[in-house]
Amino acid sequence: MLGTSALAQSTDASPPVAEQSAPEPQTPIAVAIKASISQDVPEGLQAYYAERVYAPVWFDQNGLRENAHLAIAAMAEANDHALNPNNYNPLGLAQQTETAQTPEEWAAFDLELSRQFLRYATHLSSGRVQPNKINKALNLFPDRPDPKALFENAEKSVDFSAFLDSLAPQSDNYARLKRRLAQYRQKAETGGFTSVPDGEVLKPGMTDPRVTLLRARLMEEDIPGAEDHTGEVYDGAIVEAVKIFQEHHGLATDGVIGKNTLARLNIPLQDKLVQMELNMERRRWMRDYLGEFYVFVNLADQNLKVVRDGKTIHTTRVVVGKPYHATPVFSDQLEYVEINPFWNVPYSIATKEYLPKLKQNPSALSRQNIRVFQDGNEVAATRVAWNSYSGGNFPFRLRQDPGDGNALGRIKFMFPNEFNIYIHDTPSKSLFSQAERAYSHGCIRASNPFALADVLLADNNSTPGHWEGIRDTQKRTVIKPVVPIEVHLTYLTAWMNKDGSTHFRKDIYGRDEVLLDALRKAMTENL
Fold it and tell me: Angle between the 269-285 and 172-189 helix axes, to the nearest 10 degrees?
C-alpha cells in the first residue's frame, strides 16, 4: 500500500515565476519519475509523462490501479499469442509492487511497467520482428503503435480489458490460428502424435497392420472420417480421411501413402506448434482489413483467391517463383489488365538464357516470335555480332509478340511494382496439375486466367465470354478496373479455415527457418 505522503503535494512556498515552459512535478513520486526518465525511454513515452506532469500511470494514493493488475496479467499470458512472457518481466513487476517503499522505488516501477507495456503492445499489434529487416523479400512495414497515442487511448478506455484485447490483430484468421494453437498445445501435453512406421507404399485395398496406427494418427489431428474405420484393410473411410489429410498439407490427394505423405504424417507435433507460432507472427505483420475487393495469393500454398465483401468468390491454382527466383511478399493495387500482351523479356532472362542461344544461332528466337530492339528501333537478329556482348554490355531489348506461344499467355494482370512481378496466363498448362508449383522466374501464373478476368472485371463488363472475345481478336487491349482491387502476395505456411480445417504447407523458400532464427535472437536479446 502506498503511503499518502509519497503522493501528497509539496506545501513549500515557491517563488512566483513570470514564464514557465512546462509545469513542474508536484509530488515526490512525480519528481522521482521525471528524474528517472533517461534518453533510452521512447520519445513518445517521455512526452506522455511530461503531459501528465510526471504523475504515475499505474497507481494513485489508494494503491495499484486495476489497469496495472490487468496489464501485468496480460503480459504473463503472452504465450497465448505465441509471445514470450519473459520478455516483459511480469513476475519482476509483480514483485516490485510488493517491495517498493520509497518514491524512487515506486517511480522505477511505474516507468518499468510503462516500458514493458509499450514493448508488449508493440509486439502484439505489429510483430516481434520487423519483416524487411530479417528478409528483404518481405516488403511489409507494419505500423508500430505511437507510444503517446497508445497510453492516451489506454487512459481514455472505459474497459481496459477490452482495450488489451484490441491490441492483437482483429482478423478472424488470427483468432482462429490462436485458438488452434491452444488446442494443439493441449494435444502436446497429452503425448503428441502417434508415429506411423515406414514400409511399402500403402495403396487402397491393401492390408497392413500400420492401418490401426494410421487411424489413430489421423484422429489425433481431427481428420474427419478416420474414426469410422475398423480393421487393417486400407479402404473406405480411412482412404477418404487420408485424402483430406493430404489436402490439408498441400499434397496430391490420391489416397496413396507414399514417401511424401508418410513424411508429413510423421512431422513431430512440436514442429507444427512452431510453424503455427511463426504464422501468428506473420499475421501480426498484416493489416486487419485487406480491402473490400482483393486478390490474395499465398505463395507457400500456391493458390489464389478473390475476396469481395468478405466472401471468397473465386479460387485458382497458381505457379510461383522457384526457390532461387522466390516471389517477394508485398501488397499493391491492380491497375490494369492486358489482353494479348507483349512480353518484354527481363534483362536477366535475356542475358542469361537467350543470349547464349543467340550466340549459337542468331535466328534461334525467331520461332518464338521474339524480336530484338535497340534504342526503340527493331534490329535484325541475324545482323548482330552476338559474341561481342555479355551480361555487362547488353544494349538490346527482347520482346515477344502476342500469341498462343507468348510466355505470358493471352492475358496479364498488372500492379506495377519495383519487383516486376505480376499475374499472367501461360502456355505451359501441365504444371497446374502438380501438387507443388514453384517453377517460375518470380511472376505468378494463373490457371484459367480468363475466369479470373471475369471475376475481377465484372464491374467493367459481365457479359459471359466478353474477355475471351477480345482475346480472339488478336489485338492487344488494355482494360482498367472501374473499382479498386487490392493485390496481396503473402507467405503463410500454417492457417485454420472457417470450416475448422487446419492447413500446413512446405516451407518452399526456407522463410520459416529465417524467421525462427530471428525470433530466437529477438527473444534472447529482449528487443
Answer: 160
Q: How many Å separate Cα 62 from the centre of its chain?
A: 45
User: What span, in angstroms and rounded, lies between the C-alpha atoms of 338 and 316?
Assistant: 19
| Beta strands 59-60 and 63-64, pairing class | antiparallel
Q: How many CB atoms lie within 10 A of CB 462?
A: 10
pLDDT digits (tens, 9 = 90+) for 287-341: 999 999 999 999 999 999 999 999 999 999 999 999 999 999 999 999 999 999 9
When pLDDT is cut at 50, 70 and 90, the band that residue 438 belongs to is very high
Q: Which residues contact 102 (CB under 8 A, 6 or more apart)?
A: 6
189-242 tens-digit pLDDT: 998 999 999 999 999 999 999 999 999 999 999 999 999 999 999 999 999 999
Signed CA dihedral, 368, 373, 376, 378: sign only: negative
CA distance 14 to 497: 66
Instruction: Mark 121-153 as b/e (b = at least 16 C-beta within 10 Å).
Output: bbbbbbbbbbbbebbebbbbebeebbbbebbee
- Among the listed residues 420, 298, 295, the one whose alpha carbon sits nearest the alpha carbon of residue 347: 420
CA distances from 23 to 6, 56, 107, 151 (A): 19, 15, 18, 20
pLDDT (tens digit, 9 = 90+) per residue, 377-427?
Answer: 999 999 999 999 998 999 999 999 998 889 999 999 999 999 999 999 999
Q: What is the pLDDT of residue 213?
A: 97
The reported pTM is: 0.90
Question: What integer best gives the mean pLDDT of the chain?
Answer: 93
How do beta strands 311-321 and 303-308 pair?
antiparallel
Residue for cell digits 480472339?
Answer: 472
Per-position DSSP letters for 373-412, written without gaps between them: EETTEEE-GGGS-GGG--TTS---EEEEPSSTT-TTTTEE
Q: 138, 414, 176: which is closest to 300 by C-alpha? A: 138
Residues 109 and 132: their CA atoms lie apart, in Å, by 34
Q: Which three cell numbers stand for residue 315?
A: 479460387
